[in-house]
Amino acid sequence: MNTELRPQERIFVALDYANMDDALRMAEQLGDTIKTMKVGLQLFFNSGPQILHRLHEMGFQVFMDCKFHDIPNTVAGASDSVTQHGVYMFNVHCAGGVEMMKRAKEAALKRAESMGILVPKLIGVTQLTSTSQEMLNAEIGVPGDVQSSVIHYAKLAQQAGLDGVVASGHEIEAIRTACGDDFVTVIPGIRPTWAASDDQKRIMTPKEALQAGAHYLVIGRAITHAADPKAAALRILEEV
């Protein structure tokens, strides 16, 4: 189990809202319980970079979850741009290949150094937690099991110099075996025992994920859809 981070630094709250006002209201409700907010595609495309700066002004770190996947030059440009906004972490799809991931990392490093800011953590997306075995084989057309695909992508991400990967909690131990304990794992699909699983297939409780060695947990609806979001966040922090 990774013990270097405090509980409030391990959890990213997924602000899956359609507009900035609702997202900021939720962040304000959570106060100082959680340190990092995750901004995904819907919120970012509705609010633009302003949401990143507003959250920073409120004292939060930001994980920008827009999963870049394009030709290497385009992704390098996107990495340069997002780094300028001072995000704590952002991600790319491992399926884009080693060259794409390398260029993304190089662009982030160069921009951060030129601005004198911290280099954002760059994380590779392996397989989405909504991907079942049947979907992987029959729809996506990738043979073998989900875990084998995840480990393959994790090794490519490490080869490219990325800081870690996004994966299901069920792959944490295999990733640690393949890539080492210091290779960062960001785990979505986290559901406390008292929360519904919704549309994600490969889920795990916060305690189980951390005991398996996860570095960061992404938690959305279990907190943001709770009757009392702050109380739900504190309950999860107590569990971890």
TrEMBL record:
Substrate binds at residues 16, 38, 65-74, 129, 191, 200, 220-221. The active site is at 65 (for ompdecase activity), 67 (for ompdecase activity), 67 (proton donor), 70 (for ompdecase activity). Its EC number is 4.1.1.23. It comes from the Bacteria. CDD domains: OMP_decarboxylase_like (cd04725). GO terms for cellular component: cytosol. Pathway: Pyrimidine metabolism; UMP biosynthesis via de novo pathway; UMP from orotate: step 2/2. InterPro entries: Aldolase_TIM, OMPdecase, OMPdecase_AS, OMPdecase_bac, OMPdeCOase_dom, RibuloseP-bd_barrel. One of its GO terms (molecular function) is orotidine-5'-phosphate decarboxylase activity. Coiled coil: none annotated. Residues 10-236 form the Orotidine 5'-phosphate decarboxylase domain. The keyword Endoplasmic reticulum does not apply. One of its GO terms (biological process) is 'de novo' pyrimidine nucleobase biosynthetic process. Keywords: Decarboxylase, Lyase, Pyrimidine biosynthesis. The keyword Lyase applies. It is an enzyme of class 4 (lyase). It catalyses: orotidine 5'-phosphate + H(+) = UMP + CO2. Gene3D superfamilies: Aldolase class I. Belongs to the OMP decarboxylase family. Type 1 subfamily. Homodimer. This is Orotidine 5'-phosphate decarboxylase. It comes from Tumebacillus avium.
